[in-house]
Structure formats: C-alpha cells, structure tokens
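We emphasize that the prediction below concerns an isolated chain of 354 residues; any contacts that depend on oligomerization or on bound cofactors are therefore not represented. The input was used exactly as deposited, without trimming of termini.
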Amino acid sequence: MRFLLSCAASALLAATSFGVARAEESVEGQFLSNIKQVTGGMIRAGEGYFSPDGTEIVYQAVSQEYPFYQIYTQPLDAFEKGAAPRLVSTGRGRTTCAYFSPDNKKILFASSHLDPNMSQTEEAERKQVEEDKRLNRRRRYEWPFDPFTEIFEVPLAGGDLKQITKSPGYDAEGAYSKDGKLIAFCSTRDGDPDLYVMNADGTNVKQITNADGYDGGPFISPDQKWVVFRSDRKSKEHLQIHVVGIDGSNDTAVTDDPNSVFWAPYWHPTAPYMIWTGADHSNPNARPNYDLWLMKYEVVDGQFKPGKRWRVTDHASGDVLPVFSPDGKKLMWTTGRTPDHASQLWIADFKLPE
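Result of the prediction step, given as a token string:
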C-alpha cells in the first residue's frame, strides 16, 4: 500500500496552525463569502462535485456502519434542512471519484465492489479501525491502488450499474469532458498510474501520459483541449500540477517547487483560472497545513503559460479538493472546519480577483 494524496484525501485533514495567518490578516474575505457547511452526519465526507444545474452535489463519505467510502448524492441544501443523502454506490468496496454527466442523467464513480475477496477485505479494515480506536491512533493517510477498482456509471434516477472499464489493475479518478463525450481517468494497466482518455462508453481508450511515478486526478478543460492533473514523476509522493494536451502533447509543469506539495487541481468553468490544494513541506518537523491556491493562465501559440497566483484560504484547518460550481460563482471544498475537526464539505460564494 503506497501513501498518496489521492482523490479520497479528506482523511488527511486535521486542525493545525502551521503556516496559517492570524484571523485579522486572513485572505479569505477577498475571495469567499457566505461560508457554510453542506454535509454532515457521516464520520467524514469529501471530494464533492456539483450537478450541471448546480442544485445537487455528489461526494464520497464514510458512514457509521461501513468502513470504506461510499458515494452519496443530495440537494445542495440538504444539510441545512436535515435531509438524508442518497446512497448511489453499491454499499460495498472502496469507492471514490464520483462525477455528474453533463446531461445530468448519470453519475460516474470508481468502485472495488467486484473484489472476489471482498468479505475478507472488509473484515481486515474493520479490525484495523477497531485497533486504531483502542490505541487512540490516527493512521497516516493511505490510498491503495486496489487492483479490483473499475469505473462504473449509474442512472441518476436509479437503475442498474454499467461497468465502463474492464482492465486488470486500478481504473479510477474519472471525469467527463464538458460535452460528455469523453472521460479522462487514471489507470495502472501499463504498470504504473498514468492518464488515459476514452469515449464515455469505455471505447477507444488512449494513453496520454507515460512517465514514471503517479499521474492522476485528471480534469478536462472547459475548451476540451487540455487535461490538468497531479504528478509525482519528479520526486516520489511530492505532487506537482501538470497540464497535457488532450492528445497527449505539450505536457507542461504548472508548478515545480521542491519545498511544496500541490495537488487536486480544478478548472474555473468560465475564466482562465485554475485552483488547487497546496502546502509548504520545507520543515520536516512541522505538519503541513493545506490551503487553496488560485492561478491565472493563458495559452499562447498552443503552449500553456502559468500566470499569477493567489492564496484563497488560510484557515487553521486543512482545506483540500476545491471545485467550482458550473457558473463559477461558488466554491466547494473538503475541510475540517467543523467543531470536532471531522472532514466535511463546505461551500462559499466565490469572487475572482480581477
């Protein structure tokens, strides 16, 4: 099992004051307003995404009854109204990386529920959880590349699962293109985690990265010409942001900082900006505190050009996995800002810096 800041990384969140500005100096008011919690009732929840009309969210959460993340959907105001979320996944296996189809008819997610040894896998995790409780131990976050993980889709209105990938190894971290015709995803089918693009029905699979190390968490740009992702190809587990052309050309490092880790990038839907999670890792004796960072970019003569950056959050609790609403006016992210520091989804009105 390899440590990785993957799409399920809400378990990393903890209250810490490392590198955090004092409240009176907070940068958040420049970008965020009307900040509020949107999930609750689970041990932890995170990595949420908006429906195309912005009225619902889909996310992964660990319930009181089951040790692995499962996929849930709910109206955006469900937490305020005390309404329960709806289970989308099968209720078994490790699940992650859910995403609405652009026509709002399907939900994409990855699941390991076809593991032939699922009962043993579940029992081992339950025993580990009990042991952690007994010892009052907080495990270092780990995300395994479970070889039984495949990508599925399920009708939003309910119905049978459809398996999209059927390849040996880990297939996960999928997201649709804006027109719904393509899915970008991560797979270990060639031996290590690389990026692929396929038709939405799983046909015509094409590999678009082939570097040593992990390339994952891909999202296709609004103009459908680029894929943004995270990579540790330069230094193991030291994630940085990259973009690559949808055809695999022009792979470009957006960040290259030996003292920081950057991951979970996401495109702004209407303006040339992207947002990601980042933290200073220069002090080995301090626990890094993850915050959200915004960057403007431009494409010049077919080349991707990173631009000015802004820090968006500076809270004492970690802030990770940011996503914009379809109109770009709201930001949702995973954070431990709750009183018990449990990871949950929060949302705010968002304002661009210029």
